[in-house]
Amino acid sequence: MKNGEQRIDITLNGDKTSVTFPGFKTLLEVLREELNLTGTKHGCELGECGACAVLVDGKPVLSCLMLAVEADGTKVTTVEGLANDARLHPLQEAFADCGAAQCGYCTPGFLCTAKALLDKKPHATRREIAEGLAGNICRCTGYIQIFEAVEQAAAKMEAGAKK
Amino acid sequence: MMRCPSFRYHAATSAADAASVLADVGPKAMVLAGGTDVVPNLKRRQFMPDVLVSLRKANDLRGVSIGSDGAATIGPCSTLADLALDPAIANWPGLARAIGSIASPLIRATATLGGNLCVDTRCNYYNQNHEWRQSISFCMKAPGPNGTAITEGKHGTCWVAPGSDRCWAVSSTDSGPMLMALGATVTLVSKKRGKREIPITALYHDDGMDYLKRAPDEIVTGIRVPAPKGAKSTYWKLRRRGSFDFPVLSVAASVRFAKSGEVEDARVVLGAVTSRPLEVQETALLLGKKLSDDAIEEFAEKASAHARPLDNTDFAAAWRRKTARAFLTGALKEIRGDDKATLGVLAQRVMQGASCLG
Amino acid sequence: MKTPLKVIGQARRRVDGQAKVLGQTKFADDLVFTRMLHCRLLRSTQPHAVIKGIDASKALAMEGVKAVLTGADFPVSYGILPVSQDEFPLCREKVRMVGDPVAAVVATSEEIAIEAALLVRVDYEPLKTISDSLDALKNPEPRIHDYGDHGNVHKAVALEFGNVDAAIDGADRIFEDHFFFQGNTHLPLEQHAAVALMDTEGKLCLWSSTQTPHYVHRALAKALAIAPHLIRVVATPNGGGFGGKTDPFNHEIVVAKAAMLTGRPVKICLTREEVFYCHRGRHPVQMKFRTGVNKDGMITGMDLQTLLDGGAYGSYGVASTFYTGALQPVTYALPTYRFRGCRTFSNKPPSGPKRGHGTVQPRFGQEVQMDKIAVALGMDPAELRLKQLAPANSITANWMKISTSGLRRCIEEVVKRSGFHEKWGKLPKGRGVGLACSTYLTGAGLPIYWNDLPQTGVQLQFDRSGAVVAFCGATDCGQGSDDVLAATVAEVLGLTTRDVRLVTGDTGITPVDLGSYSSRVTLMMGHAAIQAAERAKALIGTAVSKKLEIPLDRIVFAGARVFDASDPAKGVSFQDAVILGEAMHGTLGTSGSYKPPPSPAKFKGGGVGPSPAYSFTAAVVEVEVDEATCFLDVKKVWIAHDIGQVMNPILARGQVEGSVYMGLGEALMEESTFRRLPANLSGALVHKYPSMLEYKSPTTLEMPEVDTVFIEDPDPNGPFGAKEVGQGPLLPMPPCVANAVYDAIGVRVDESPVTPEKIAKAVWEKDHGREARFGPKSFPVIEWPEASKVKTPAEGGDGTASNEKPRKSKLLASGFRLAPDSPGAKVEGVKS
Fold first, then answer.
1. Are the Cβ atoms of A88 and C22 closer than 8 angstroms?
2. In Å, how far is A163's CA from the nearest CA of chain C?
3. CA C374, CA C367: separation in Å to the nearest integer?
């Protein structure tokens, strides 16, 4: 490794992955620039917008604020890893159907956060959804269709679980 | 994309390991806990440490335990999200609310209590990119490269109060004022001088630059919150939005009542009005009294005189000052047990707790 | 009989929905090319200064740095409007604001470019700064630009329709009100990014997050002196635009030049702070409304003056200025009207078009004044408006032609649904409701470059697989224009949106569309798509008619089949129909285009405001104001929007709710503010907080419940009757909030945003026996040019000004070409 470089071993969207990168890079930079997973977005790189949220060990994390080196040994899930093979995750279905993705730029961050939210609280109320998503800014939708999408996904997931 | 400057990275395996590196490297080392404040500040080049000492793998710095005396001992690297939802913390409702009000759910998922206690003071002349700060010839708190802001033998200017010889950056911790009101203590460890436990009151210093009495080689290893013993606590935080924003005024209060209803003990701390959390002494006026409207009003009027915010955060300083009185009143009325609906719109806003993500 | 619509108006997943939820959508910064270099702009730290010298030697010496460009590399200026070509890709003689680009470092990685940029040394000689409009009027020197009307006045305009002074002075009451609308910015989540390369044919190709690839194409041709046909601009899907990506930007031209110089792909992605410097957001506007009103509430005339703070460059500013006066008579029937507008320069990021371009600010003033009039006359605010709505099928005093108007129904709906009559003036103290209305364009009637060319074109290509490909220059900035294109083609051809493949926003491949601004795309592209699809239908229909021996007028396209209306079983699949068509006509392709109808406004300045169709909106907002602190909470919004015809109800509602969101942000908290340090210590003039944290954008927790209703009264000028929805619903929000605050606690905040601080100040004034109000008390004296005097239609006018020379009717016939003296012109130029 070159001076200042770091290496991490992670489980990325289900696959064991090793990556070497300049040590100052955040997880966001490594995902986008070293691993070509450009689905994770950036709107400020300072933790002020939520666009870069990914799941680290199931928790929603701002990838712009996490040094990549700190992700060593974790399970990382990005928007690219939400679908189950060719089948969209219920949240993805609902976001596409309900108009929750307009420009689509905040969408990956919202999807990852919403997944963590529903994993924790499958029957979240409208208020709880709003509180859980309060770290994600969307400038297009006014949030209402995002709330509706999370509710629709929750209902579908519950129906799916009962089957 | 905003990027961090280069640094050396050390993943401390324990508190002792971290203290050892801090002692060896000296002031050019910096502690990295959750990173949610340090990383943006690095990206803006507000500081440029040589070494980052990460506490993420120091497992002895996490977790909450309740002692036989009812006091809580909190590992400083516990995340805010975990703490906000921890049933043990629910014994101090004000603390749970203060923690749940910090930044956003996504930040609370990684930010730590120790990090928030020690969070850098803020100022909108300081929390800016390098280039922006270059446009104002930098400031006292963050001189430019080669001391650009240091002119004519002085330290550089504090643009908040250019005549002043101190820095007026604002204490922006939410947990600090609340833990002060709860009479908490903090344990600090240094390799050379060992362990010391101090009241949180003694952790802060009223100076925007030198705001912590933590020595550069010390790390926070524990926070101890004494048993509530029936005291009621609350936290009111003023900010523009219900999420993201740092406090621009806060009131942390803890009050214990006698069985007959008189105030036995009361501590009230103002946050974000100066460079440290500020405990108000006027609580003495409340001792032995019931929390009547008159008593509360008298207290709020006098105590709010300490809130003298300056123009370096969101909201007009004059309005923040005015709001301090309303917040002091509201917080005590909430503690008294007033119906939430009678406390106004803002009360409903400040009473919002953490999200289900913590 | 009209056939019922099968695709249009139906709820469906947008065509780009799946890619967006999978993270597959490639935004500009997601593009990566082999050997790609990265660019970083060094920006001015001085608000106003002469550049004495630039030393880039240390940066150039750094390992990995491939080039450093400066103003010397860019001798030709550009700008969005032909009259304001005042920008250079990199500043040449002077800088006009903090954030002006001075040098560009191109390196093998972004981090190297960042570090190297810090090593570039620029020597500045500071000049006195101009901080806002009042400052600009007071200080004609030093001039920020050496063009414009005079001093630091960019442009002042005056229009007069009818005998307005007599009409106002003769009224029972005269209302004089001053307002200030603060500047604010678009804040799209995606930061602007662009990548340029020389393609395999040696031609320049630029991918950029732009709403207007056509105008970027023009700017590249001009600023780099390249023949336009050797340039291709691809608009990547925009991660939000809201008007913030409608100017050609310096960084786009810089990376194009850098790619030409280095022969390698070059990318730039701006930081959030740099996006604040690109700006082109809402102009801060001072306003004075002088309005004559009779006892019965009828307005006799309105005299409006506006003063716009334009910032450091022209941008769309001249258009913005006219827009502040264009739509007042389109909402209410003003018998007489005078408008005077003035735009000044200042040393701040340039103002420009943001959602509702130029009309949001005077809408605030007009609707708050209407509320004041209602209160003063003891009338219901809804009644006052209803009795003088500008009627459908009419021409306004300022010669705007209104086709349909559903405003009456909009008002009635929101009044009913919100219980406005039961609430207004009757809620307990601290609670209040406010009403406001608005109007917006469905596409500007005139293009930026006046010519006889279509404003948009659609080409369709069919092949024997049954595939339909639609080509159009329109750009999806999130509003869903791709979905509208697919739906329109599918509707006409009896297909679904899934059957249509799209190629959009690519000036090298698609027919010109002027861009995603002025709410023009659905209407204009829609018409072009219908025309292209109808032409295809005729070709394919003829072939099927002949083959199956069905009379042509009985041929129906539906359900992916082509068949006999009288005997639906007799027919072929759409694919077979295409095969028949291809066999008969050869390779199948059709095109359609659209140009708006001519406007009756023939006076100078009449080019801003005309539109094929106007949308109308009414809204009611309920608020609660905390008595102790004046903290303000919006409880609920009711909004009704006259949309003509909904294209996709999910997307349409998203546009309304998104507009409400953005409008509430402007009403409550969003503002672009600046700081000047004490003059004796520093010449600094900086953006107070160019960050997502401190520029307050409402979160999920600030968004109230919204009750949305669409009024569908198809407009003959819209495709399937559709009118705009992307901008209009923003407009009523700021005045609704201000009016509701008055209803709640009896004070007026005549300035945006309506913050607790301002409410508290107004309450303090009230408690001290003064006017219960916060806001400007005066309007500066401005030397206005002589007004163009235009008789109103009621006075028998003809749309021209009596004191103007007749305008040249000859318009530039060409698209765009190089100046005859530019080097590229010799290589390739269009002969005039």
1. yes
2. 25
3. 11
Spatial distance between the Cα atoms of C226 and A149, rounded to a whole number of angstroms: 48
The structure tokens 């409903």 sit at B348
Question: How far apart are the CA of C249 and the nearest CA of chain A, in angstroms?
Answer: 19
pLDDT of residue B143: 82
Among A159-163, C74-78, C83-87, C810-814, the least confident range: C810-814
Q: Which of B254, B203, B170, B248 is nearest to B76 (CA)?
A: B203
Report chain C residues whose CB lies below 8 A from the CB of B344.
Answer: 430, 626-629, 631
Whether the CB-CB separation of C19 and C478 falls below 8 Å is answered with no
Predicted confidence (pLDDT) at residue B144 exceeds the cutoff of 80: no
Among C678, C694, C701, beta carbon nearest to B242: C701
Residue pair B85/C649 in contact (Cβ under 8 Å)? The answer is no
Those residues with Cβ within 8 angstroms of residue C2's Cβ, 6 or more apart along the chain or in another chain:
none
**B21-47: pLDDT as tens digits:** 999 999 999 999 999 999 999 999 999
> What is the per-residue pLDDT for C826?
42
CA separation for the pair C75, A144 (Å, rounded): 49
Chain B residues at the A interface, defined by Cβ less than 8 Å, are 1-9, 11, 32, 35-36, 39-40, 43-44, 52, 54, 56, 81, 103-107, 109-110, 242-244, 352, 354-357
For A20-71, how does the pLDDT look when each residue is reduced to its tens digit (9 = 90+)? 999 999 999 999 999 999 999 999 999 999 999 999 999 999 999 999 999 9
Residue C830: predicted pLDDT: 34
| Model confidence at C2: pLDDT above 70 | no
Neighbours of A125 (CB within 10 A): 11
Query: How big is chain B, counted in residues?
Result: 358
A34 CB near a chain B CB, below 8 Å? no
SS (H, E, C) C669-702: CCCCCEEECCCCCCCCEEECCCCCCCCCCCCHHH
d(CA C262, CA B112): 47
pTM above 0.90, yes or no: yes
- Map residue C154 onto helix, strand or coil: strand
The helix/strand/coil state of C757 is: helix
DSSP-assigned letter for residue C172 = S
CA distances from B42 to A28, B36, B46 (A): 15, 10, 6
Any B CB within 8 A of C693 CB = yes
Cβ neighbours of residue C797 closer than 8 Å, sequence gap 6 or more:
C399, C790, C791
Q: What DSSP string describes A23-92?
A: TT-BHHHIIIIIS--TTS--S-SSSSS-TTEEEETTEEEETTTSBGGGGTT-EEE-GGGSSBTTBPPHHH
Is the N-terminal amide bond of C350 cis, ω within 30° of 0?
A: no
* The B218-225 sheet, strands edge to edge: B64-66, B72-74, B218-225, B185-190, B194-199
Start-to-end C-alpha separation, chain C: 47
Q: Are C666 and C360 in contact (CB under 8 A)?
A: yes
Closest to B254 measured CA to CA, from B285, B290, B229: B229
- C200: CB partners within 8 A, 6+ apart: none
Query: Could you report the predicted ipTM of this complex, rounded to two decimals?
Result: 0.98
Residues of B in contact with C43 (CB under 8 A): 131
> In Å, how far is C360's CA from the nearest CA of chain A?
18
C218: left (phi over 0), alpha (psi -120 to 50) or beta: alpha
State whether C682 and B129 contact (CB < 8 Å): no
How high does pLDDT run on average in chain C?
Answer: 96
pLDDT band per the 50, 70, 90 thresholds, residue C832: very low
Express each pLDDT in C402-453 by its tens digit.
Answer: 999 999 999 999 999 999 999 999 999 999 999 999 999 999 999 999 888 9
